[in-house]
Amino acid sequence: MTTNRIAFQGESGAYSHEACRNARPEMEPLPCATFEDVIEAVRSEKADLAMLPVENSTYGRVADIHHLLPESGLHIIDEAFVRVHISLLAVPGATLADVRQAMSHTVLLGQCRGFMRKHDIRAVTGADTAGSAKEVASRGDTSLAALAAPLAGEIYGLNRLADQIEDRQNNTTRFLIMSRQPDFSRRGDQMLTSFVFRVRNIPAALYKAMGGFATNGVNMTKLESYMVDGVFTATQFYADIEGHPEDPAVKLALEELRYFTSSLDLLGVYPADPLREAQRQG
């Protein structure tokens, strides 16, 4: 069964919605209240794909998302990078001079401090970015604006009074696209492999487990640890590496990793987003 839908967390007009539209323009975006709801929409076949944010270049990883990925039953088939461009959105007829307050998610408010200070605009915390745009539209108050993606302005009939007002021009969010079925095929020159593992309870197990990647010249772009089941002694690691599991170097590195682990689960194999290489080259 296919639905041609891609599920995301948040209101219509959220940055996750923008990620869906950019990465899968042929699919219908399906808004969901929580990350768990996004995953369940795919598992229950209400949607074919899930769009999940995992990290931001300014604020780090998205809280709790790595706990959900291994238990989701879904597989990573792609990644999508979205530049976080922030617009000041207001009801029709309002001018920049009219705006005294701007509403948004607390994280986004912290990314526009310079602009807010310059124009003497007070920050108001909203539930999320697109939800704030929806609230501003419903109030019809010319002194209240929203900080959100330009897409939110289109959806809720708000005017863009200023664009790209974020303090950091390289602010980027990385999303993972997940499916019920894995796809291990090669789809480009630059492939990535993601997996989770737990090391065996022996001295220097993590050090030894990582040795295979160093000796085989495999670049590990991410390694993060987190507790399992709220127990300090149970630690799981999430890793991203460059390459495909069938690459000789990657194959040898994973074989060595298996020797020092009590569990190893492959989450996905997928092509690198072009923006990844562009950022690496500066």
From TrEMBL:
The record's top EC class is lyase
For biological process, the GO terms are: L-phenylalanine biosynthetic process
Q: Where is this site: Essential for prephenate dehydratase activity?
A: 173
Gene3D superfamilies hit by this protein: 3.30.70.260, Periplasmic binding protein-like II
Which pathway is this protein assigned to? Amino-acid biosynthesis; L-phenylalanine biosynthesis; phenylpyruvate from prephenate: step 1/1
Q: Which InterPro entries match?
A: ACT-like_dom_sf, ACT_dom, Chor_mutase/pphenate_deHydtase, Preph_deHydtase, Preph_deHydtase_CS
Q: Which residues form the Prephenate dehydratase domain?
A: 5-180
Is Acyltransferase among this UniProt entry's keywords? no
**GO MF entries:** prephenate dehydratase activity
Its source organism is: Paracoccus caeni
Task: Please name the Pfam families in this protein's record.
Answer: PDT (PF00800)
Q: What is its EC number?
A: 4.2.1.51
| Protein name (Swiss-Prot/TrEMBL) | prephenate dehydratase
Q: Indicate the segments annotated as coiled coil, or none if absent.
A: none
Q: Where is it found, in Gene Ontology cellular component terms?
A: cytoplasm
- Matching CDD domains: ACT_CM-PDT, PBP2_Ct-PDT_like
Catalysed transformations (reactions): prephenate + H(+) = 3-phenylpyruvate + CO2 + H2O
For the ACT domain, which residue ranges apply? 194-271
Q: Which UniProt keywords apply?
A: Amino-acid biosynthesis, Aromatic amino acid biosynthesis, Lyase, Phenylalanine biosynthesis
